[in-house]
């Protein structure tokens, strides 16, 4: 599949990619992100008129917040004390509610039937709590490596990535960069330790575990590339009764960095070009150190399947059993630093068989396993699996957005046809024509047909 494009062809294609046709497509994707931001903003406005967690009284003033969970809110000290005695003590320690942030809304707001960020996994250990959702595209399609992970406001960023891949087409092939098979998880983590000690989370070392069914595991592995770090565990491994895969975070083809992003720390959205908060120890590696009450939101992508049998977020989620996140809790900076801890994280090896065991080998690092709630995901994606994308968008994002999606979808199909026509005119060899078609299809960003 090694291919060197003719420089003249490449020049023409590059011209097209930076031309108006491709730009329209990119602009439409940017419009989708902007629309979603607006929805969040609207919801946020509704939420700021919050109510007291104890007496239920609504208020426009700033309410007192429980310093440990940043979730419960009160009119005054009396309400806070009364709530703590009757209910909140257990709720706070049990990580019942995630910290309040508009970047992660787990409850339906206003008349909505579904939350913006439905919970599909949660759990806590040693005073560190996790809530897991999906960062979904409007129609629940899985993403590609070709697309940037960060929601891009500048539509030309898509084209820049495309041009880089055209210049080195083998990269796209090696990484299967145009296959729509990346699931994006949103992981919210918070320290609620009562001893005042910080904790450290190693985002880039997070993995997902597939269900222990050989066929599911096989479907999940079909899209595997040489760049993926996947370990297979079979019967006989400790605690395992079937065959399952442990999949590390996907790797970006341009800089080999893990496809993860810290998007929010303590309610502040992290933006490019703005200094990182001190909680972020290593942005690209997703290492955060959190003091009690502090929280961070990470987005991470995992390659699930080959884009054929598994095409939607729901398909991908239903193959997964748990998310495993390494943490050090409590963390003592005097004893070891986060960089060496991050580098030390690995799986144990069985001394007899020499095979890897599904347990961390690094002393002091604990892996928190968050089981996926299959039924919660099934309920959330019911419309998608039974009635299709349009019905799903209607019920989850409203009539208006469904209309906009249908309109855009038709426009994009038209653009894709034009792209193919343009490519045909380039007269590329048959093999390469196919991969260019694939490019054209994927120009229809965030979509599948
Ligand atoms: Zn009150
Ligand atoms: Zn609390």
TrEMBL record:
Keywords assigned: Metal-binding, Zinc, Zinc-finger
Keyword Cell membrane: no
Molecular function, one GO term: zinc ion binding
InterPro entries noted in UniProt: Znf_MYND
Domain MYND-type: 52-92
Entry keyword annotation includes Zinc: yes
A UniProt-annotated Pfam family: zf-MYND
Name by which UniProt lists this protein: MYND-type domain-containing protein
Upper lineage: Eukaryota, Fungi, Dikarya, Basidiomycota, Agaricomycotina
């Amino acid at each position: 599949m090694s291919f060197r494009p003719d420089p003249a062809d490449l020049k023409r294609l590059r011209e097209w990619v930076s031309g108006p046709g491709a730009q329209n497509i990119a602009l439409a994707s940017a419009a989708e992100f902007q629309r979603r931001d607006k929805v969040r903003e609207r919801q946020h406005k509704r939420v700021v008129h919050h109510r007291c967690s104890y007496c239920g009284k609504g208020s426009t003033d700033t309410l007192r917040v429980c310093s440990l969970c940043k979730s419960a809110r009160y009119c005054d000290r009396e309400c806070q004390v009364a709530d703590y005695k009757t209910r909140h003590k257990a709720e706070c320690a049990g990580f019942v509610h995630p910290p309040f942030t508009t970047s992660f809304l787990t409850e339906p707001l206003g008349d909505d039937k579904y939350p913006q960020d439905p919970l599909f996994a949660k759990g806590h250990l040693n005073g560190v709590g996790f809530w897991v959702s999906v960062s979904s595209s409007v129609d629940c399609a899985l993403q590609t490596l070709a697309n940037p992970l960060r929601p891009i406001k500048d539509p030309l960023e898509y084209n820049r990535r495309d041009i880089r891949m055209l210049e080195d087409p083998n990269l796209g092939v090696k990484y299967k960069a145009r296959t729509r098979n990346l699931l994006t998880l949103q992981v919210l983590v918070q320290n609620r330790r009562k001893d005042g000690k910080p904790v450290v989370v190693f985002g880039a070392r997070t993995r997902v575990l597939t269900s222990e069914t050989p066929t599911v595991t096989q479907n999940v592995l079909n899209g595997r590339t040489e760049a993926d770090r996947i370990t297979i565990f079979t019967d006989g491994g400790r605690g395992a009764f079937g065959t399952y895969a442990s999949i590390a975070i996907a790797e970006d083809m341009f800089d080999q960095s893990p496809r993860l992003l810290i998007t929010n720390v303590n309610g502040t959205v992290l933006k490019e070009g703005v200094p990182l908060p001190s909680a972020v120890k290593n942005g690209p590696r997703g290492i955060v150190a959190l003091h009690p009450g502090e929280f961070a939101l990470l987005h991470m992508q995992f390659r699930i399947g080959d884009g054929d049998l598994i095409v939607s977020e729901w398909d991908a989620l239903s193959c997964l059993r748990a998310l495993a996140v390494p943490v050090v809790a409590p963390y003592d900076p005097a004893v070891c630093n986060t960089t060496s801890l991050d580098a030390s994280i690995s799986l144990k090896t069985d001394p007899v068989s020499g095979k890897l065991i599904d347990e961390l080998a690094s002393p002091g690092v604990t892996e928190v396993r968050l089981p996926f709630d299959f039924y919660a995901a099934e309920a959330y994606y019911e419309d998608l699996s039974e009635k299709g994308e349009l019905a799903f968008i209607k019920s989850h994002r409203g009539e208006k957005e469904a209309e906009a999606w249908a309109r855009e979808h038709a426009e994009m199909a038209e653009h894709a046809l034009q792209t193919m026509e343009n490519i045909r005119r380039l007269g590329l060899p048959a093999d390469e024509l196919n991969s260019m078609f694939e490019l054209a299809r994927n120009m229809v960003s965030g979509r599948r047909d």
